[in-house]
Structures are given as structure tokens and as C-alpha cells.
């Protein structure tokens, strides 16, 4: 079977650009997709970085003008991997020209912006890079929940701690400027927690939040916390911070239900802890399942059972599922509408933190 | 040296009565105290349980009338180990007669009640059984903090999860009745988190809380959560629940500071995790210190290094330190005034949860 | 019911003397035994240490002549807690006078000595302090094995690592002198591994061993290792060392069978890891069971589920089971005959290490 | 800079063929090597599997005759990823024609065969795929050892446990036939332990071994164990088994030295536990270092610190280092001579197991 060539224009060549480049290179090695991604052009502001990125990953061309790249007729897919404030103009322009649009998270810098983006992007296949949904352990958590293995959910905890803010060398980039990032830890880290919560535990009905900036003079939040009530009656507790000294990349969730518990930690991404409360009392205990097969999500895509995958595979699996869905004309998540729902919660977090009160977060009807 | 005999009257013969009886029996074996506790009389409502308790632990007498016991001239110490609503009358009566007073936690069922108790108890040596302060790992955490090993504190997390509420067989006792317990998970579990937080991180300035009752018809909280700002500028996140399915006795704290991190979990009570951010980057990592010596709190009281102690030793160490302080006429904590501070936060939690707003929790000047 | 008073003479007042004293004091608090141990006399060579021990634990008398103590008519029980070379004369004398005899491990300094001791001791109730059999997690492992949860056993690993030998301050005691200890790490540590292996996996048929002394001039082994074949067809791997730097008290076993795996580590003594190979592949994983109840060995003797016990409770449980067995005239293990079986393996280890060949270890018929 | 194209012929298209294909595809994305690998031809016996492999990874051609492929003038590199018994003829033929030769482990099915292979291969750049040396945590262990952080080594333990043998569905492949594999668990698993031991702790002087086959009728070992003395005076303990039920891919080493301890487990491959015995006693404890940077081996090749890599990256790093060494005409390890040293130990294991005695394993002088 001949595969259709997909010409990619990637806007941005930073760390996400590297992760996406690798995904484009690797997706067809691990997923049986009817497309052959062609790394056509990488766009950015810094020519030297672009040349280095192109040399490393084999991008055919470089360009410093994203608008031209987005409007090229030979381009099929536009991948947006730039600072948050640029997501909207690029993704919207790309969607308007009928390109397939992939966008980094958080989708936007405000709820209104996100909604406008989604309104346009709905016309084309679209994706938000909430890559952690495709960690096999996370997808397996969702499967166990769908099978009813947790029963009625009581508690959901989503926490993302790193220590980037405590390191003065790392605090001058765009992630620390409101004009470019929109938010601080909330957009960068908490958005991941929120997306996983919505994916695993459904809509959030209301919340009360606090944010804090530890560094003098910084205009984005260093930490953002909130307590919530989910539509399913469970209680949520969330925290994200760049001052979690001792934690490099601790993105965790924990769910207690009437029939069991699930625990995940990105620092140990090939495992999922599962406590089955229906077992005999004397052998009932949390078990650390190595989610590399057999019978786990993606176990036939990558290596053999017990051969761990790493960070980059979350992007490969996201892209693999997306291209499969595009080929089959099936729905794909997380898409721009999912990105809007995360933005709705982020906006409520900001609003609640400013007002010191609870805020309703009624999800949109779609 | 002859030891002075201390005649004890213990009010209550439940699980705490067992833990206290053991502490009275064992304290002189592990601590060099100038007293010889004599288990004089155990009081309660149920004669059969009293006889069983007396037979097991060697209480000389049993009594069903606590007032007579408390007023006996031969009694030196009154130990209050009954449901919360009875703490105030018994402890107050005992203090008024000049007895040494020991009281289970939470001190009271309201802030006002607690303050009244403390006002009376200040006249005599007094103790609140916040036993977890005396876990060697917890005391060592305090020592490291006092030495400045954490630097400026950014985040404090205190969480106590058990699953008692999800077990219908266990939910009919006094702990589930407002008239006897005052509160639910808040008084039972969250009070421990609050005491440790005040002990380790100082006063809480303000908080916003939520509480929830999962079980229909129950009149106490099953879960209580709050977010806080500490007086030292750090941010706190707290949760206690009886619906933490999968967790039997998970009482944890975690502190991130500019120079390091500490983590403790009661499920692994002989260990303290310490991350020292001042070390060389390539060998910097959290270390799970077995806090059984050498050079750890209480390491010469119990067994040799690497020979773990258990739950009961927290009571023994509390009593050992208390009797030592009494002998030396030194201050002891946690005392009734410390119990008041915990009650102040519990009251703010209830108030904030009802109002849905932030509440100031300015600590009392003493 | 009136309890019978048991007058104890304890020979030795070192670390084991402390552990035994505590067991005598505590056994009736946790076990429903028809005896009331009376700490009559503690014997030893150093009067100052004896007085300190007596003061701390309430021994009524001290004595420096064990022979007189052992022959006193008012003594019911002789407890031997002295260096290994003295086990035989004291235990034998005590058994000959009809006393109940308790003896520290290893039972003797040679197989012949052990067999002679057992021949005499069989006339009276007797016990060897292989206390780790009574760790709830270990007793539960035995229960799971007896229930067939492991299926056919393939592999048994028993390892005991500490770092005492690497610490020059600790190497001058009797444990480092052949004349007093008989062996080094083999008697001190490996004997525990062997006893647990025989208890959990049955007789050893043959073995090949190596021993090594790292410290110049020391006349006992610092490390002892062997490979073995068990009578049940499984393969064993054993190691004990005092040069396991980084390990304070790591006494572990691990068993792989056709239906599952068990893992235990004394450093985490309230837990047992169990892998059930008969479960569904995608949720099959090792689970760390907290063996504090419900439905676990000793869970009703000590505290509530999830309230950990410590090192000392292994001695209390050993004594509790022993006194119960004595009262019911039932068999008790580990007794002197069990001590002989451990000695048989230790002797084979020494013989094999010297010869560099495999040695048969056919267990005695009893 | 133009890169030189390297035409690859890969012999074998099984699991290792997949891992190698990925390494050829990815090496230039993560390592700055002056070569551009071209996946020219994949050879094997099964045309259908070859077509599938070629389609997945982009091999330009397939071939069922390895001899023709090996002798093609346009081929620069021959990669041998076939059952062990075929390593010698293919690798030798390739080396004789002057090709760069890469060979899977174990190098051969006998010491003599391995020595003959090495004699020929020394004429060309050559590599044995002992990929676990390139796990960052393992390479970092070597670095710490080289820096003297362990002091004098006392104990080395190398264990590789999986459960493949206990699964009847998996036991019919070439790995279970002596004619194709030469050995069972010894060649498959123990060879990895031996290579790491020689890499980390130097030559083995003597050993005594046992092997066992649990499955009736199977002609290779299911388990192989040995005890050893290293040339540096330390003691070794080794075990490999396919009946380690409960363990999927547990390849561990543990080293105790006078100044510290190291522990590694392939099941947690991004971490290395390090105990530094020179630290203050009260904060001395094993720390689980996440070896993903900063300042760790390969941390600038893959992702950012705390972004884990997986199984496949061990092959990429091996190839990256090899191509770098080839370009710089520097020595590379593990090469065929290193493969010989592993084979020397494997042969001694077989010999000792058969004879039941210790065997000298004096390393060859080179």
C-alpha cells in the first residue's frame, strides 16, 4: 500500500520542536498509519537555531516567516510549537487555509482566545499536544475507570511539581513573561493536571483557587492551587508549582473510589499503582503495574513487555493515534475543544484566585 | 535514686486507652524519668471493657464514675482518653483539683471550649497527645528545619488519608456523631496534620476550606481540605479524608524550601526523605533516611540503629519527654495551648467551608 | 483466672538481654497466656551492667554466678542470652535441672555441640530465639506458601547484609572472636537466613559455600555465601556479610514459584510483597501488603491494622506463642532441634568453604 | 559538513533487528556523528518477516542469502542479529571482507569460537551489543567508581531474573535449543551480568557455579548461578534465571565498597541508588538519583533532565559512541575482545557446574 506523503511545517524549534520532530520521524516506525510525514519546513525567529534543528532532524527547509510557510500550498500540516501568545494567530491562520493543525498546550492565553481558535479549527483535523494522555499507564488508568474498577469516585488529586522557578538560571525565558506565556505554572504545568482530570474524571463544576508568585518582579504565577467539586460528586485537589524543590518532573494523579485507588507519577511513567478494594482483605494492597504489556495500551506499538519507553514516546503515540483517526475520519482527543475546556478551568482559577471566592465552571454544551 | 510514684487515673478504655496503658507501663524502661507510674484506676462506662482492660494492663481498680476518680486525693495524674465531647468537663475538673492532666486530641469540640480548658490547665502540667511529634523521623525533620537545611520555605503539604468511612462496619461509633466527636475527619485526622504543620512550619495566617460528607445522613465531615498561607510566606495545602480508599493510615507531610525538601509518611514511619539542594547536581537526589540512629532523636532510648520502632513508641516518647519536662520544670509541647492553636485552625476550616471564603487565622498572643 | 507465676533467670544483659527483658515485661499485655513472668534474677559478668539492666527492667536480683542461678529451686525458666560459646554449658545445665530453657541463636558453635544440647533439652520445653519467624509478614508468607499460593518453588534467595564489619569501632566485641562466637557473619546473620529458609522452603539437600574475612587478623568470617539445592527441587542462593556497606539490617528472602513470588525485607518489616501469577496479565503485579491486619498473623495481638509494630514485637510474639504452646502442651518451633538443623547447614558451609566442593546436608530423621 | 553515508546490511529481523533498525534511524538525531547510516539490506530466512521489517523501518532491500549481502561491495557495515550459533560464520565472513562488524551478544557459543572471531575482527572496527553499558545510570556508576567514590570494593552482586521459562507459550524458540543458542539463561541473561561486572569491577579470578534446567526435555540451562572472587579482592555473587516468576526484566547489580554502595535495576533504568558512607551519620542514606542530567552521561544527547529515556536508547547510545570512536580512530568497548572475556566466564560456569568445583578464570593478556 502506498502511503500518502504529509508535508509538515513546524513553527518553533525549541524543546517542543525537538520532541515533535522526533515524533514525525518515528511515528511510522511504531504505528501503522497510511501517511508518510515529510519534514518540509521549520520556521522560527533565530536562523542559527533553525539550521541546527534542520540539520539534526532533517527538515528540508528553514524559514523565518511563519505566515508564508502556513500559506504554502504544498504544506498539509502546520504544527505550532511556539510561545503561548503566538498559538492563536498561527493556528487560526493555518486552520483557515484548511491545513491540519497541531498546537502545543495550553491552547491559548485566555478562554475567549481559545474559543475563537476552536471555532475555526473545527473545520479541519486538529490536535492539542496534551501528550500525557498517551502514556500507556495513563491510558490504562482510563481503561480501568471505564471498566468500573474504581466504583464511585470520592477523591481526585492532580499535582505537578518541578523546581524550575528556584533556579535563577532558568527564569528568564518566555515561560516567565506574561506577554508571551499568558500564565506561569498554571499554563505550563497545571494545564496538564486539568486535562488529565477532565479525561479521567469528567467535568469540574466549581472551584476555589489561589496563586502565588515567589520571585520578586515576575508577572506570572509561580504556583497555582485549587480545590474543586467535580460533576460526578467527587472532590478535587490540585497544585502546580515551579518551586517544588526536590521534584524535577513530578506530575501525579491519585483517585480514590469506592472500589479502588489509582496512582500515577510521571517520574515513574511506565508504572500505574492500582489498589483493588474488592480483593480478600489479607492480600489487598496497592500493586505497581508495569504498563508495558501484555494487554496494555500501546504494548504492541513499541517494545516487548518490561522494556520501558520514555518521554518521547508520548508524542509518538499522540501523533500515531491522531493520524489513525484522521485516516478513519474518527474523532480525536485532545483536540482544540478539549483545549478550550482546560482553558475554561484555567480562567476560573485566575478569577477565583483574584476574588478569593468559589467560581462555577459549568462546561460548555457541545 | 528512689523514684516518685505517680498514681494514674485513666478515663477511657478504648484503643487510646490501650496505647496510653502501654506507655505508662513502658516509659520507665526506655526513658530515664524520676517517676514510677502506677496504674491506679481506669474509668469508663462499660464495666466489662474496664475489667478486660484492667486485666490486660494491670490497672489496680476500675470505676464507672470519672468524677470520683478525678477527685481522689491519691491520684496524681488524670489521663483523658474518651470521646471528644467529654474532654472539657473531665480535663477541666482534673486541672481544677491540681492534677497533672493528659488529654487526647483534638483538645475540644470548639475553639471557645479549648480556650477555656487551656485557661484552667495552665495551672498544672498538661499535655495533649499529639503523639506524632515524637516520631523520631518527625522530630528529626524539625531538627533539620531548625538547622536551616531547607532555607526559605515555599510549600507545605499535609495530608491524612484513611479509608475508614468507606467501610460500613466501622461507621457507627462515636467518631461519626457530631454530639460526641464535634467533627469528623477534621478533628480525627486533619488535627494531626495541623499540629505537625504548626510544629514544623509555624503559624497559619489565612485559609480557605471545603468539607464534604459522602455518607447520607451522617452529621460530621468525611473529608476536609484547605489551602493556606503561613506567616512565613509559604503556601499550605491540606487534606484529610475517611474516603481515601487504598490508604490505611497515610499521614504525610512534604515541605519544599529553597535549599531542600522533606517528606514523611506514617505508613513508613521509621524513614524521612531528605533532598539537599545544595549538593552537587549529579548526585543530588532524595534520600530515605532510616531515622533509628545514630544521632537521631530517641535513638538511644529504644533499640539499636536499624531496629525499627512502631506505633506505640510515639506514645512512650511523648510521655517520656513530658515526665522529663515535669521533673525539670521545663516547658513541654504539645500542651493545651498548642491544642488551642489547632482548634483555632479547625474552627476556621469549618467557618470557611460554610462561607466559601478565605478566613484570617491570626494566632493568639501568649 | 489466676495466672501461674514463672520465675525467670536471664543469663546475659547485653542487647539481647534488653530485648528479652522487654518481652518478659510485655508478653502478657499482648498475648493471653496463663503465666505471669517474674523477672527474678539477671546474671552476668559485669556487675555495673547488671545493676543498670535490673534498674531499667525491674529484675529483682542480680548475680554474677550463672550456675547458682540456674540451680535455684524457685527458678522456672532459664533464658540464655550470652556469647555463643556459653550457650551449651548453661542451656544444658538448665535443662538437666528441669528448667524451661530459652536460648539465643545460633544454638551452638558446632553441630556436635548443638546435637548434644538438643538431646538434653528435649526433656523440657525449649526455644531458640529465631525471632524473625514471628514477624507477621514472615508468618503470613508461610501461610501463603502452605495455601499453595506459590505453586512449585523454583528459587529461594536469603540474604542478610549489614555493615558492622566496616566500622572499626564495632569490631572488637565477642562477635569477632572465634573463641566466643564460633563463627562470624555465618553464625550471626546467615543463621537467620537458614532458619527462615528451612521454615519456609523445607530441607536443604546439598550446598557449596565460600567464606571470606576482609579484616586482617580477624579469625572469624566476615562474609559467608552458598548455593544450594533444596529437597523440594528448588535452588537456593544465600549470602550474609558484615561488609554490606549501605545496608544496616537488610535481611531479605525472595521466593519464585510457578504461581507467584514473595519478597520480604527486614528493613521494611511490616510489609510482604506478593506477586500472584494467576491473575489477569494486565493487572498482574507485585503488591506490597502491609501485614498489620486484618486477617494477618498476630493482628489481634498488637495494634489496629496499619499501626506498625517494631523490632521488639518479634520477641514478644515468640514468647507469646511459646508460653501458649507450653500451656497447651503443644509443639513449638523454633526449638533446639530446629537449632540443630541450622547448625547442620552452618557446619556444611564451613566444610564446603574449606574444601571448595559441594557437601551433602541430609537432614536428620527425628 | 557533509556526512559519509554508511551502508548497512543487517542479518536478522527479529526483536533485536527491530532495536538495531531503530538505532540506525535515530543515532544521527541524538549523536553528532560524521556518518549517515543507510538501511541498505535486511537479510533473513523468512521473506514475509523481512518484508514487514523493511516496510516498517525503511530497509531498501531484503535478501535471504546473508553471504551475498556480506560480500556486496557497497556494504560498509554488517550487523549480526541472528541466533547465537550463526554469529561466528557471519561475523567472521564480514570481518574478512573488511566490513565494520556489529554482533549481538553473547558473542559466540564457546570460548574457542569467540577467540577465533575476535582474532579476525580485530582487523576492523567491531562491536558487541552489550547495550546496557550505555544506560546513563550504568555509565554513571562506572564514573563514580572511577572517581573512587566506593573505595575498596567488598561485594559485587549481579542478578538477572525474568520469567520467560515459566510461560509455556514462549519456550519453543531458538533461545531454548542448544543447537541454536549454545546456552540458555547463561548466554541470554547471565552474559549481561558478566559484562557489566567486568566493566564495573574488573576481572574475575575464580568461580564455582551451578546450572539447572527445570523444564523436562529442554537441553539448555534455565538458571545459572555462580560465586566468584574478583582480581581486586572482592567477592561476587551471580544469578540468572528464566524462572524468576514475578520478575519481568530484573537486571540488577549492587556493589558494596568501603566508602559506599551502588544499586541498579533495569526495571527502573533511569535511576541509580548511591549510598555515600562518608557523609554525616544522621543524613547518610541511599539516594535514588534520576540519571537524566544534569552532568550525567548522555544527558545532552537525549531529552531534558527528568525526561526519561527507554530501552531503545541503550542501542542508540551504543551506536553513537561506536561511530564516534570509529571516526576518531579511538578504542571502543564492548568489542569482540570484551565478548571473549564474557565467553571465558560463561565457559568456566559450564565447566564448574559440570564438575562441582572451583575453576580458575585467569583473563587473557592482550
Q: Tell me the fraction of residues in β-strands of chain A, as a range.
A: 15-25%
What are the low-pLDDT stretches of chain A, counting only 5+ consecutive residues below 50? none
Counting DSSP H or I runs of 4 or more residues, the number of helices of chain A is 10
Cross-sheet strand order for the largest sheet of chain A: 14-13-12-11-7-10-9-8-15
| Secondary structure category of chain A | alpha/beta
- Oligomer state equals homotetramer
N to C succession of SSEs of chain A: EHEHEHEHEHEHEHHEEEEEEEHHE
Residues in helix, % of chain A: 25-40%
Biggest interface, chains and residues, is: A-B, 37 and 37 residues
Taken from the alpha-carbon principal axes, the silhouette of chain A is globular
The major sheet of chain A is characterized as: 9 strands, mixed
Number of DSSP-assigned strands of chain A: 15
Separation, N- and C-terminal Cα atoms of chain A? 37 Å
Estimated radius of gyration of chain A: 20 Å
Rounded mean pLDDT score of chain A: 96
What does this entry look like structurally?
The structure is a homotetramer of 366-residue chains. With 366 residues, the first copy, chain A, is of the alpha/beta class. In chain A, 34% of the residues lie in helices and 25% in strands. Chain A contains 10 helices and 15 strands. Chain A has helices at residues 15-30, 47-57, 66-71, 87-96, 111-121, 136-146, 178-181, 185-201, 312-328, 336-355; strands spanning 4-11, 35-43, 61-63, 77-80, 100-103, 126-128, 153-161, 204-212, 223-230, 235-241, 250-257, 260-265, 271-276, 287-290, 359-360. A 9-stranded mixed beta sheet of chain A has the order 14-13-12-11-7-10-9-8-15. In chain A, strands 3-2-1-4-5-6 form a 6-stranded parallel beta sheet, sandwiched between helices. In chain A, a hairpin with a 2-residue loop joins β11 and β12. The longest helix of chain A is centred in the last third of the chain and has 20 residues, at 336-355. The two termini of chain A are 37 Å apart. The model of chain A has no long low-confidence stretch (mean pLDDT 96). At the A-B interface, β7, β8, β9, β10 and β12 of A face β7, β8, β9, β10 and β12 of B.
